[in-house]
């Protein structure tokens, strides 16, 4: 079996299934686990490396309007790798190689490799994606084992959260300029962790929101998990957040309950590390109730100075 992954989350799923040795090619974004970093890259991005958040948002909106993806295949590399299985996605129209481009490329490859499209919109569907990949690789038992392991960790958090009497109002902020509330699986993570997402809706797409909406929702806790950004890159945009007059009036800011997490590594990737995301989020919301598992970095609470105080 020779597998090419066209998604960072799919790469992590393949490795969670103990199939890492079958990976022969990954995307330019795949960086976890460390062993995949030396594999051939079969995609490239069309996003300028120095683009601002607002410029990226405009580029994404333009690509959505014209139904063009922000990433493209390196066909010569893909042909050389001759995969048996290609794992890609149909969830987001711009954040991976276009589905039609993948299908056309597969028809040109020797042996007509199987193409598996992952399209999870909930935590359960993310777990089902693990089984889908395992089945496609001919190892269904590996899928059942991985799903049971991840489900056990989710259930452990959910069980502890039953002790939360008054879930705090939470906003998971997926983008700063312009502000986006998180959708899909993210509001579900908030609920399981013992919070109540005030703007995002489970299973629905992320959406841009106005500062008027955010102020009206008045979250008691804000968790900033910018899609595709690590913590240092997200910090570059904090000044844009603090510059918003309504931001300082939020309860979460007054209480110092604004937290920063690595959205790129965790919350944006619908793979096994969504369970890590849940555990990080649960610890941020209720640190005494939810201990942080060994090996995970806690969310970073912004200081009064960083919040403009």
**Range of helix content:** 25-40%
Instruction: Categorize the overall geometry.
Output: globular
Main β sheet profile: 7 strands, mixed
Parts with pLDDT < 50 across at least 5 consecutive residues:
none
Q: What is the CATH architecture annotation of the largest domain?
A: 3-Layer(aba) Sandwich
Instruction: Please state the structural category.
Output: alpha/beta
Report the strand count: 13
Oligomeric state as shown: single chain
Task: Quickly name the level 1 CATH class of the largest domain.
Answer: Alpha Beta
Measured between the Cα atoms of the first and last residue, the distance is: 56 Å
Written as H for each helix and E for each strand, in order along the chain, the element string is EHEEHEHEHEHHEEHEEHEHHHEHE
Query: What's the alpha carbon Rg, rounded to whole Å?
Result: 20 Å
Give structural notes.
By secondary structure, the protein is α/β, with parallel strands linked by helices. It has two domains: 3-148, Rossmann fold; 166-301, Rossmann fold (3-Layer(aba) Sandwich). It is 38% helix and 14% strand. The protein has twelve helices and 13 strands. The chain starts with a strand and ends in an 8-residue tail after the last strand.
